[in-house]
Amino acid sequence: MKPDAIINVRFLTTAEGGRNTAVQGQFYACPLVVDNEGFDCRLLLEGRRLELGADYEVPVKFLYRELAHPKLTIGKDVLLWEGRIVAKGQVIKIVEK
Q1: Exposed, middle or buried by CB within 10 Å (0-12, 13-18, 19+), for 86?
Q2: What is the gyration radius of the CA atoms in the chain, in angstroms?
Q3: Does domain 5-94 have CATH number 3.40.50.300?
Q4: How do residues 47-68 score in pLDDT, each as one tens digit?
């Protein structure tokens, strides 16, 4: 699956109000929030385990690229939402079609 963007992301620790466990598997599904607007996406983990409190570069695939793409710029702050903010990051690359 070809990503739409690459983000640098840090999952908040449990003490910071984040998740209780690391993120792992083939993908992680959640809304990615840009400018207070959420877009359904999949973080393409490809079997990686993302520990809480650490920084990672992660490819992102949007379910509706045409809605999210106009909002993305290099350096744009993003949030990952799971009933609350669970991660903070920035767009570091936008992948063109």
Answers
A1: buried
A2: 12
A3: no
A4: 999 999 999 999 999 999 999 9
Domain limits, the chain? 5-94
Neighbouring residues of 73: CB distance < 8 A, sequence distance ≥ 6: 91, 94
CA 92 vs CA 18, 53, 59, 83, 89: distances in Å = 22, 19, 10, 25, 9
pTM above 0.85, yes or no: yes
Q: Which amino acid is at 76?
A: K
Burial class of residue 75 in the structure, from the number of CB atoms within 10 Å of its CB (0-12 exposed, 13-18 middle, 19+ buried):
exposed
Structure tokens given for 17: 């109000």
Assigned token pair, 73: 């710029």
